[in-house]
Amino acid sequence: MSTRKPLRLAVVSAGLSVPSSTRLLADRLAETVRSELAAAEREVEVEIIELRDLGVDIAKNFASGFPSPELSEAIESVTSADGLIAVTPVFTASYSGLFKSFFDVIDNDALTGKPVLAAATGGTARHSLALEHALRPLFAYLRAVVVPTAVYAASEDWGGNGDSLTDTLPRRITRAGSELAGLLRDLPGGGGQAVDDASVVPFAEQLSALRPE
After folding, report:
1. Which of 25, 66, 87, 203 is 20 to 30 A from 128 via CA?
2. What is the pTM of this model?
């Protein structure tokens, strides 16, 4: 087994209900990444951040300019992690206000170069493009490294068989999780690596690393 430090994976879930399909998707993605890294003999510590529990703290931060201890802890967990899974329900064809507000209180440079897997849930497949017109641009603006496969789960995807043009949800989860694990696998671990513009891997190299040999 590798003697390197465990990798740290932050998982942000913006689901509002209990139980939540958003949290369910987040858990399945995290477990896939954990399994892929275990196969590569890398240990990973997963921390779940439920934004539902931080809604009031986030609103107060906008009004006062100061985060509560709980919000500060959540922000630190996300910004210091080696990688991030971010999952939101889709409201009005975009990410939820709670999801956007959380990332609004994070410093614009704090996610630079961080590997991110973006995912969303919704009642209908018609909202799946929110991944490309909302979530991916958000993390691109924050200069994160977003894996090629984003995962959207509509109500019919849970237990569905897909169709001739789309993979099933489990296959999409596996592909996206494998892509994130591929970016995390060779990091030093411990969430302590310094990331700046000079250390960001060019996108062509990122894609090359994800291609099967």
Report:
1. 203
2. 0.86
